[in-house]
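Quick one, probably user error.
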């Protein structure tokens, strides 16, 4: 079939839509009511007898340049290839993936586009049994724009990647075989409004739907609920009927389960209104998502023409005296930011993908989702209605790249948002978001987009929303940097917990008074982290004008490759910016989620689950504990409280009970216990489980901290053997040998079992002072590592000598080190070993700062390489997951067993990992129990791996880390917190390592 292709709409600033239908609600009609009732929000799209899902195999032709796209396009002569729709070019091999954060892919001045723009042409055939129906073709998502043709004729044009684009194609459809041709350009003038932090992908990435209506059909509807007092609401329904509706009736039925609450039936007209008064209903909330089923039926004497189901929820969203309320309750958003991202399919999110994400969010105690930074597939919001989430529905507007715009990279963040020539494009995107999603009970705030400067075009959008939907507040973070400050709420991203406290106290300034504060992004979850999450929530709970926030972000963005596929050209399973040959990219900044790309939880997700816990416990006094229900609507009657007292990691008393604590209230429980050992640790441990036995959260409260391991065996004698190179201490069955040239222990052998690695991968056996860590993502900001300016990684540790003293029952060896950089002395360090008759050692490490050295360093400890056969690990400390001092709420102190390999946290970008704090003992042994034990005096942190720290520093992908046939153990007296510095504040001062002069820590090593 022949077409005359229009090849300039994408760069014509005067055009952003042609013949596109007005926005309307997303709804899936049926003719068979029973069939509709057999579906749910995830399956109704795919089982309809009225809507045909055209997703699947399409023909495709890719052109690298728009200039070579034939103007006279003959589909019979084009050599198409087969592709699946939905999909994107970058995930199907037509282009390489590109990840950018704040930049456009080209350096031009808006609305200019490059002379050549890649373009893809899609073709799909479909059959119709008869003409005369009403056909609407709906594209749920296309990047960047769409020129649509049917059967040789031009139908229309659309921009707005994440908004639905619908066209009435009735006059173009014929009986028999029909042909769709969709021309998709990589960029359009609309691209300037789509500069979001994500992989930049193109194509038809959401489902394509063909609505096959009869001669009369329900086109749109709106539901407005009005609170009347108590549990009483009224419901007003306005229905838009299209087509030849003479002789048709419209029926509205509202059900509570199988119970009919209200119904009415009238003759069909273009606009049909229903009003149900004095309905006694249960209100909707994220905790108790009470939904009612509304069925709208259009029928005549021949039967049903169209029936639609809508899930209705009754709610009140109000801001009262700068407090955000929902159904008159002061709620907190325990939220996350959610991008559409699949490791294989990119932007394409299947129904199963969406269900998995929301199911995991529920399991991890999330109650709010910001749809960053565009409206999601409507299926996600429908599922949020059912499962219970507060949705911050965000418009597809971001102009971040104007912060570095044009060939000269000018800084003009307000360039587009202050240009009213763009205003109709802004309003169109907001308008389409609103009309599609306006009936959803889960939509709790509208968002005008993200990082788009402002405020002039945003003002116009706000006026539109406030005029048509005053009952839902409007959010836009960018307003904080303008004289608008905020629309209905004040929003900030990555502000500090200290600033939140000041806002709560009204001591931060006038602009932060009068509206509630919402952190649309906070606690950047990149790599190890986020830290300080519990500190934020201790403040959020204190002040009613703090709404909570949404952690950035839900899942890592990365491209997955099948390493078993011989056709795969990549050596890494997951790749990020710069791995695909792209010249312009932003590295691994996209790998910043709470979940790995496959939705395995990061440690940060476990920490979030613990902090977002619905019930909190605090110790009142001996035997008395207060349980606080942080929910606003739901009591705790369905939660099992499993409480226990542990002594030195072993349970000595336990009890399970249930409490019906009302929302926002607390209850004190008596759980008495007599502590019979002052030299023991005691903890109060609580696990909260749902009715299916799933763990909602857990907590641990320290009752006594008395366990110590500071005694050593002093019975026996030692012999000192000394040469020019070495100093040896022996008890007859064991020995400790020091190198006089390096200060290292080069042999630690007991009963003919060598504990150390005699061929260390790092050429250092141990114990060696260490004050650096392989940089974690949150050690860097803007790509600059916090420690780069201090050159800590390049600092040289120089051995200055050792001295020894022999006592009655011990030998003391002192090793001295000088740490310098650029000929400047940074630190003096000393390690003192007191060797005891059983060959155990009391080790004391000290670090003294020079005036040139920073007080703040990532860690201070000692490293040692053990024999590679020592793979069994047992410890008494925080576990079983990695933890640091500002991120440990998810880990309880107990006795844990693992292996060295299992201790590794497999970050896509390798970084220092698997630290375990609060440790009192550690045992590292072989299969026969031979090895060493480390005992804290009183506590230490440790990490242990089959690779060295230097190998970890060099690695850029997880596959770069190889088993080096060693056991690299770090024993630390201090390990710095993680914070959120990668895109936010550093860790709090109390979690940093700051010392004015000298610090020391001590531990005991015993052979096993």
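Nope, works fine. Designed sequence:
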């Amino acid at each position: 079939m022949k077409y005359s292709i229009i090849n300039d709409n994408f760069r014509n600033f005067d055009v952003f839509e042609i013949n596109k239908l007005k926005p309307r609600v997303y709804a899936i009609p049926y003719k068979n009511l029973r069939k509709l009732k057999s579906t749910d929000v995830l399956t109704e799209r795919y089982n309809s007898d009225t809507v045909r899902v055209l997703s699947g195999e399409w023909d495709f032709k890719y052109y690298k340049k728009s200039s070579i796209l034939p103007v006279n396009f003959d589909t019979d002569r084009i050599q198409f290839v087969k592709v699946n729709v939905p999909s994107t070019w970058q995930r199907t091999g037509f282009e390489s993936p590109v990840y950018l954060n704040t930049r456009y892919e080209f350096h031009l001045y808006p609305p200019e586009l490059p002379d050549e723009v890649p373009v893809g042409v899609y073709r799909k055939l479909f059959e119709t049994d008869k003409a005369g129906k009403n056909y609407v073709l709906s594209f749920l998502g296309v990047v960047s724009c769409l020129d649509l043709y049917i059967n040789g004729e031009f139908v229309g044009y659309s921009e707005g990647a994440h908004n639905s684009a619908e066209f009435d194609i009735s006059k173009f459809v014929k009986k028999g075989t029909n042909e769709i041709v969709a021309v998709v350009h990589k960029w359009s003038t609309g691209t300037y409004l789509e500069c979001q932090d994500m992989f930049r992908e193109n194509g038809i990435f959401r489902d394509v739907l063909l609505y096959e209506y009869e001669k009369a059909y329900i086109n749109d509807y709106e539901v407005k609920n009005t609170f009347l007092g108590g549990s009483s609401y009224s419901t007003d329904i306005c229905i838009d009927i299209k087509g030849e509706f003479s002789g048709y009736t419209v029926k509205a039925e509202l059900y509570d389960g199988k119970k009919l609450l209200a119904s009415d039936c009238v003759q069909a007209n273009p606009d049909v209104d229903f009003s149900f008064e004095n309905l006694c209903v249960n209100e909707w909330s994220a905790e108790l998502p009470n939904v009612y089923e509304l069925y709208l039926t259009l029928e005549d004497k021949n039967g049903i023409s169209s029936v639609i189901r809508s899930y209705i929820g009754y709610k009140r969203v109000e801001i009262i005296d700068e407090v955000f309320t929902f159904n008159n309750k002061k709620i907190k958003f325990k939220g996350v930011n959610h991008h559409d991202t699949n490791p294989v399919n990119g932007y394409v999110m299947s129904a199963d993908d969406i269900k998995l994400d929301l199911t995991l969010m529920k399991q991890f105690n999330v109650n709010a989702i910001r749809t960053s930074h565009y409206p999601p597939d409507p299926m996600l919001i429908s599922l949020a209605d059912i499962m219970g989430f507060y949705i911050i529905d965000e418009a597809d507007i971001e102009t971040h790249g104007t912060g570095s715009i044009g060939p000269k990279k000018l800084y003009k963040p307000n360039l587009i948002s202050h240009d009213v020539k763009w205003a109709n494009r802004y309003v169109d995107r907001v308008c389409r978001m609103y009309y599609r999603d306006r009936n959803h009970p889960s939509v709790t705030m509208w968002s005008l987009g993200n990082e788009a400067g402002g405020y002039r075009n945003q003002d116009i959008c706000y006026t539109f929303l406030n005029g048509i939907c005053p009952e839902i507040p409007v959010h836009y973070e960018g307003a904080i940097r303008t004289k608008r400050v905020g629309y209905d709420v004040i929003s900030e991203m990555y502000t500090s917990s200290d600033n939140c406290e000041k806002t709560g106290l009204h001591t931060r300034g006038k602009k932060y008074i009068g509206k509630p504060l919402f952190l649309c992004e906070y606690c950047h979850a990149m790599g190890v982290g986020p830290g300080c999450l519990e500190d934020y929530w201790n403040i959020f709970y204190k002040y009613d004008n703090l709404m909570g926030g949404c952690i950035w972000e839900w899942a890592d963005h990365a491209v997955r490759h099948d390493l078993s596929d011989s056709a795969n050209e990549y050596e890494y399973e997951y790749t990020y910016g710069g791995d695909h040959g792209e010249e312009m990219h932003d590295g691994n900044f996209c790998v910043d989620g709470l979940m790995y790309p496959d939705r395995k939880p990061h440690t940060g997700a476990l920490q979030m689950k613990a902090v977002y816990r619905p019930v909190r416990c605090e110790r009142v006094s001996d035997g008395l504990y207060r349980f606080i229900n942080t929910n606003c609507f739901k009591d705790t009657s369905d939660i099992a409280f499993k409480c226990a007292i542990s002594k030195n990691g072993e349970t000595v008393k336990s009890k399970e009970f249930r409490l019906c604590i009302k929302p926002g209230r607390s209850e004190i429980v008596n759980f008495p216990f007599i502590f019979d050992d002052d030299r023991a640790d005691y903890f109060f441990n609580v696990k909260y489980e749902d009715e299916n036995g799933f763990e909602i959260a857990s907590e641990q409260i320290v009752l006594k901290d008395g366990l110590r391991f500071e005694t050593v065996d002093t019975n026996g004698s030692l012999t000192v053997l000394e040469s020019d190179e070495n100093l040896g201490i022996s008890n007859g069955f064991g020995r400790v040998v020091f190198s006089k040239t390096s200060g290292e222990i080069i042999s630690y052998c007991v009963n003919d079992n060598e504990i150390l690695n005699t061929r260390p991968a790092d050429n250092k056996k141990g114990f060696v002072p260490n004050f650096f860590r392989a940089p974690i993502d949150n050690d860097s900001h803007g790509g600059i590592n916090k420690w780069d300016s201090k050159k800590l990684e390049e600092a040289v540790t120089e051995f200055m000598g050792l001295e020894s003293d022999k006592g009655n029952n011990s030998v003391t060896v002192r090793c001295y080190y000088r740490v310098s950089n650029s000929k400047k002395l940074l630190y003096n360090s000393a390690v003192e070993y007191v060797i005891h008759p059983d060959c155990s050692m009391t080790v004391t490490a000290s670090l003294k700062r020079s005036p040139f050295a920073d007080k703040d360093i990532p860690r201070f400890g000692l490293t040692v390489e053990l024999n590679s056969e020592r793979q069994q690990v047992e410890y008494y400390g925080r576990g079983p997951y990695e933890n640091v001092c500002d991120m440990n709420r998810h880990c309880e102190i107990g006795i844990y067993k693992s292996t060295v390999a299992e201790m590794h946290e497999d970050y896509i970008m390798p970084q220092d990992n698997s630290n375990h704090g609060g440790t009192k003992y550690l045992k590292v042994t072989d299969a026969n129990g031979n090895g060493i034990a480390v005992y804290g005096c009183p506590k230490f942190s440790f990490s242990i791996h089959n690779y060295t720290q230097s190998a970890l520093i060099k690695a850029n992908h997880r596959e770069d880390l190889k088993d080096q046939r060693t056991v690299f153990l770090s024993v630390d007296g201090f390990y710095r917190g993680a914070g959120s510095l990668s895109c936010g504040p550093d860790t709090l001062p109390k979690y940093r390592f700051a010392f004015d002069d000298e610090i020391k820590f001590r531990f005991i090593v015993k052979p096993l």
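Residues 330-609 form a domain with the TIM Barrel fold (CATH 3.20.20.80).
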